[in-house]
Every structure is written in structure tokens, then in C-alpha cells.
Amino acid sequence: MSLLTTTAVPAPAAARPAPRGTRRTEPIYYLFLLPSLVLFTLAIPVPAIVGIFFSFTNSVGIGDWDFVGLTNYAVAFTDPAILRSYLFTFGFSLVTVVLVNVVAFLLAVGLTSRIRLKVGLRAVFVIPMVVSGIIIAYVFNFLFSNSLPAAGQAVGIPFLETSLLANPDLAWLAIVVVTAWQAVPGTLLIYIAGLLAIPGDVYEAAEIDGATRSQRLARITLPLMAGYVVINVILGFKNFLNAYDIIVGLTNGGPGTATRSIAMTIITGFNGGDYAYQMANATIFFVVTVLIAFLQLSVTRGRNSL
Amino acid sequence: MSEEPRRALRGISGALGLALVSSLLAGCGSGDGAEPVRFTFSKREAIPYMTQVVADYNASQDDVRVELDTSGVDVVSASFVRGNPPDLMLANYNMEVARFVDRCTLSDLGDTAAAARIRPDLQPLMDQYGTCDGRTSALPYSVMAASVIYDKAVFAEHDLEVPQTWSELLEVADTLEAAGVTPFYGTFKDDWTVAQGWFDYAVGGQVDTLDFFHRLDAEGADVGPRSDVSFEKDFSRPLEQMTQLAQYTNDDAASRGYGDGNLAFAQGQAAMYLQGPWAFSEIAKTAPDLDLGTFPLPMTEDPADLKVRVNVDLAAIVPEGSRHQEAARDFLEYLYRPEIIEAYNESQLGYTPTTDAPPPSDPRLAGMTEYYDEGRVYQGASVLVPKTIPVMAYTQGIAFGADVDATMRTLDTDWARLARRQ
Known about the structure:
Largest sheet of chain B: 9 strands, mixed
Structural class of chain A: mainly alpha
Radius of gyration of chain A: 25 Å
Strand content of chain B: 5-15%
Oligomer: heterodimer
CATH superfamily of the largest domain in chain A: MetI-like
Structural class of chain B: alpha/beta
CATH superfamily of the largest domain in chain B: Periplasmic binding protein-like II
Largest interface: A-B, 45 and 49 residues
Helix content of chain A: over 70%
CATH architecture of the largest domain in chain A: Orthogonal Bundle
Helix content of chain B: 40-55%
């Protein structure tokens, strides 16, 4: 500890020498930064760099290893299992982000208009957000495997009689529904905040000018909400790319390997003794998400000023 | 003004440093002078038994003090990576342990008295998970045999004999179905149950897995449509038979899991169940008096091909990184004392791997004992494929109707790709 304090503290001070001691920064501020800085460095950049380093080796996590250059990357790019997990994850994220935002937006418009039980309803819709993903997944797992087929049998709808989770072509839909169910509240809250921030006199003016209800929604609400939509889409998409817990609880990647997400594929490297290879996969995933983040930022920088 | 924060800083760092040093010192002091041995064991059902064994051993002498660590497989793996492995492990012997064997990170147990008592015909099974030249890296402690579990009362009611051939098996299934009884209870929702029961029994019942994987290893990166041995060539036939059998399951097999299966089977909803002896205690929770038996799944027309699936449920391991080699070996010999190892296996329905041990007396296992005694056993194909290949998910896909040949071709290319990489 004493080593860290002696090296870490003076370093930033030396990098930016105070001009003639007049506006010298209080050293105590650096002390405030220190715990977070140490924890952040130890928890994120250091493991990431170690992981990237090992992606160029043939390590299995223990024992001796050798450098293998770009072999892991070359193989990963042609590995159908990895490619399929990317295809699934991106497709799933796109569909979910659209569904979540449409549902949350409509709900937000409803919950900010003059209706009864507004506050109570808002509380009800936010409940899914506070339940952990794995619990939601297990509850829905039971519903899909037992309740829904039983209901289907009772009413005589053959489509529902077999579990959605056991259908390789449709299991992803179940994951979309459950993920959306959990993700809607967070998105909803941001939309409600946005809607409440739109001043009422804009609507009054539009009403006086004879704008209909749908015109007001399309011409006033939507443009004024564009910034919030962008935020929700970016945050949502980023979260859905990391999909893990809900899939584990619902299908565990099945049936077969139909619903394996990228994160699940990477995790297999730890318990499957394929550490270096999946580290290469994780590095690729990291680069891909960074690229997406930059793309979204550059696109939205213009859009935000709407 | 600036003096005060600096003094505070020095005070804080000093206090932290002191805390760190004192915690390190506390780790070193072991107190009474007995050599500590960290012993990991995480088979949940047997922890009470093992706790008692450890307590008895500690009470019997003063030189070694065994500490039981039940924190589980992942923690143990991580401790190897950190260079601080346990001193003695009693662990499930599988592909996860194989990497420790292959990289020679486990010490040689060949010179122990326990090693001399192990049945020699089990060694090829141990070697399937990798070898380190000239070393006995692990000793089997408990062998589990698994095959078809059947409800004796249902069989008697319909005048059925235990089938010895594939056609007899189909006859039994047809008879049961005609009488309105579900022949097999399927729990395809949990992919491991498909792999462990359906896939492994179907393959092991007619393919020599020992030989198959030897030849597959030799082919390595060349495994594919043109190689002499491949999953597609050797497994397609048994798996076609497996899909044929899967027709005889409950209609909702695709949405039933292991827990559902145990309950349903205990309630008499099916006549046969492709599970291991671990399911007995679960079934007994609902139906303690159910009269159950076991028989190997017949896959050919020759009764001589009948074999049971075994796995080394527990193996004893002393990692090379342990600093208490002698003490660990002393406790290892204690664990292998006939009265301890035999009582353990008797209570857990396992077979004791020593040459002189009697089989477990539980009547539900009687149908498998003759095969185990004669060495007519195989290890499941699903656990012999490296874990990085999602073979369990593939077998589940087949149970759900995926094309057998296409799935086996995927398995072939996965195998070849892995061989090219490692």
C-alpha cells in the first residue's frame, strides 16, 4: 500500500507542475481519486490486458504455454460456432432494442397522459426492473415449459402445446420477450422523464392551431424526444449484446446451440480449458463493440441537436 | 494548510500497510505444530460422511491436521492458476481435470500402497483423460455405473423380461405402448440427460469407445469425410437407433427437465428411465418403496455386446504444487483403508475400484454388478469429447429432431479444428 501511495500520488502532480505555486492543487483531491483509480485499474484494464496477452498464446489457463501468433484469431474467424453466436447475438439485439423502445415509448405516452391510477400503474410497470435477470428467466422458463403448454392444451391451440423453448427456430423469440419484459422499465423511466420535460405550452399552441392528437405526437412529441430515443437505443443495444443471464436461465443456449450468445461462448473458454482461444474471441468482441460505440456516437452527434 | 493532509496520508498508508503485514503473518501461523493438509471434496451428498472421516483421522494422530474444503470445482481450478493448489483432492475425474494431467501438474501416486490395490483394468479408462509419462497422476476412488433404470412392478404386470437384444428392447417398448404405458421417460430439456443417458448408452452399446477415441486422436486434424474414423462414420448408426427409441417417450419430453423426470418416474408415469444411480435418491424422495432395477441398454442382436456406462466419480489427486506431499499421502492411505473406501461407496451406490472390494449391496444395482465385475464397461462418449465442443447441446439437438449425419459432420469439423489449434 505504501508503495502505491508514494508512486501514484506524486506522478500526476509532477505531470502538471503548478504555475509558481499560486494555483497549486490540493493533494487531498488526488487522494479522493486514488481508491477508485486503483480498484478500476485492478478490476478492468489489468485483467483485460492480461486476457489480450494470452489470446496470442496456447494457454489453457494453467501450466506452460507458447506464443502462437495470430492462430487463435485465424481459427476464430472461420469457426462456425463463433460466427453463429455473433449472428444470433446481433439479430437478437436488433429485434429486442426495437421491441423494447416501441413498447416503452407507447407506455410512457400512456402513463404521462391524464389517466386514473397513473402513479400506481407506473410503479407496477417498474417492478420487473428490480428483479434479478436469472430469477425472471427461471420463472418464465416454468411458464413456457408448463403453464403455456397446459393452457394451449386446454384451449386447443396446437401451436402452444409444445414448449416454445424446445423449438430450435422459435426459442429466440422467447428470449426476446423475456429480455424485453425486463428491459422495458428502465427505458420507460427515461421516456417518462423526457415527456415530462416537454413544456405544456407547446401542446397548447398546437391545439389552438388545430393540430390533431396524432399530429401532435408525430410533429411535437417525437422530434422533442429524439435525444432520449437515441440514448435508449444505444444503452439498450449495448446491454443486449452482452446477453447472458436470461439465456442461461431460459434455454442455456439450446435447443442444440440455437441460442448461444457471444458471452456464453466466451465463458466456455474458462470451464472448457480453452482459455486462450476464447480470449481471442473476447478481444474480437471488444473491438467490435468499440467500433459500434464510435459509429453510434458519430451518428448521434448530429441527431442530438434536433 | 498542506501539512495536515500529508500527515493524514502518511497515517492512512501506514495503517493499511500494518493491516496487510499482520494479515500475512496470521496466514503463516498454524499454531499447534501439526502439518496442515487442505483437502478438497465437493460432492454435496457425501459431505457429512467425509466430514466424519476427516474428524476421525485428525483425532487419530497429531502430526497432520486435515482441513476439509468444500468450496467446489471452480475454486479448485482457480487455485491451480494462482499456483496455490490444494494438497489433496478427491474430485470427479473428467476432461476438466485432464488438462492438469496432460501438463504434468499432478504428482506421481504410483508408489503408494493404495495404488497397488487398484484394479488394473481400470487404468485404460483413467488414461482416456490424458497421461503424463511414467506417472500415475490420479487414483480412482469411486466408480459409478449407469444404465437403464426400470420399474420392476410395471415389467411384471405386463409379463416382460429384461431385454438382451435390440429387437427384444423394441418388443418391450411396443408392448408397453400398446398397453398405454409410456416406455421411456425423456427429459430432453436438460441437455446433459440426453448426453449421459440416450447418447452415451446408444453409442457405448455398440461402439468400442476406447478404441474409437484412440483412433480419433491419431487422426487429429484429419478427421473428416475422408478419414477412416469419424463421428459421422461410427456414430450415425447408433444415433439413428437412438432417435428411433426417442419416439417411445412421453409427449412432453422436450419441455421436461431432470427434476420433472425424477418426480414423474417416481409416480409411475413410465417404465424405463435412462439415468444413473444418482437419480435413485431423488426418486426415493417421492416413492421410497418403488422396486427398481437396472440393465444395460441393448443396442445389437448379440447379448455379448452388453456393457454398462461407468465414470470415475471420484479420483484422488495430489497436485505437484502442494507443499505437504508426505502429509497428504498419509491421509490418502487412510482414505483407501478398506473399511473407509468401502463404506463410502456402499453409501453412495458406487463401486469400489480396489481388487478385493465387494460390490455395493443395494439390489437396485444388481443388474449391473456382473458387467462391472467382468470389466464389460465403457466411459461415456459425451464426456470424452473436450468440453470446448458443445457435444451435449448437439445431442439435445438430435433428440429434438436435428439431422444425425449433419450433426455428426459438425462434430467432426469441430474435432479437427480443435486438433489443428492445440
